[in-house]
Design a protein that fits this description.
Order of helices and strands: HHHHHHHHEHEEHHEE
Number of strands: 5
Protein name: Sensor histidine kinase
Structural class: alpha+beta
Organism: Yinghuangia aomiensis
Strand content: 5-15%
Pfam family, one: HATPase_c
Keywords: Kinase, Membrane, Transferase, Transmembrane, Transmembrane helix, Two-component regulatory system
GO molecular function, one term: kinase activity
Radius of gyration: 43 Å
Length: about 400
Amino acid sequence: MHVEQQRPALGSAFAPARTGEPGTALVDAVMSASFVVLLVAAMTRFLIRHPGAPDTPFVIALTAVLAVAYVLRPPGPAVGPPPRWTKVWLALFTAAWAALVVIAPSFAWSAVPIVYTALRLLGERAALTLVALLTVFVVVAQVRISGDDPLLILGPPAVAALASSVFVHMQRQSERQRGLIEDLIATREGLAASERRAGTLEERQRLSMEIHDTLAQGLSSQQMLLQAAERVWDVDPGAARGHVATASGIAERNLAEARRFVHDLAPADLADGGSLEQALRLVAERTTEQGVVTRFRTDGARMMLPARVEAALLRVAQGAVANVLEHAGASEATVTLTYLGDDVVLDIADNGRGFDPEAVGETPEAADSRRGHGLPAMEARLRQLEGRLTVESAVGDGTVVSAWVRVVEGP
């Protein structure tokens, strides 16, 4: 289960940069090198300008300590505010640097890396406050060196304002991008979950249709045959045994079908290279054995059909003839497979009692529909192939079920 982490509001708190992000290590290395170079340059200038000054050893020692402390400074936190000890480190480091600037104002030039560190380790308001204080300190130090030079008075605030604005803007942009990435990840996970649910529902529908078109219809036929055998057992034992034998054959075929659709294989009648025409002929023969004389015929020039089309048409034929046996009260039926150029059409016609398609709620076929199988299952199969199912019927005038599938895509 995906749990979305709460992100800080962009305007409320400054989000420190994540260590390990692309470019962060390079910027840290550049800042460390720049700070050390500026310290060395300022110390060299101090030694040249003030040879033999009594506080020279202190300046050298403090310069070395600051250089090492900055190179080994604590990294910015990966997430959330920095630990309190990093703020203590920054306070002590800034105080030591300020003491060095008081002794030698030239060290004020090394303030830029400190500004960068403050922006990374502190919240936005605290960081900008410290930057402002450092800027004032730098201006005072520059005035001590060069006097009231307007460039040295206005230059550091302008540079500090520009650098801080760019840094804050980049950090906010980074946070927005991070938020977009998190949203995209959440969306991708949501889509994956939806696809899994859709796959589960599709598989459930497939199994439902397979069970209806094979096991359920076979069990219904077995029940009818066994009931017929029971009725004539005492009168005509031979006929009764024939019904039982037919029911046994249906049970054997159902077992084979069950094993195959559990493994998502082709229907048993299409296995081992069997053609759709052969499978439909077997369906007609079995229907005849169960009491409805059923003929199979083909029309048009035969063509090779994709396995999915053959399996779907066979399942439609099995479902339609099962409805004929169970609901139609027919004595005859015809299964016709017609090849029409790029199309193939399967018709199952019977001479049964028929029904009014507009008032399907009053018919036995409607009861089968309400259970979510029968005609709806046939339609679902054909929709997966962009095919179409039509039903023509009238009360007392039989029923024709037609399945159409486009086999060859148009230009």
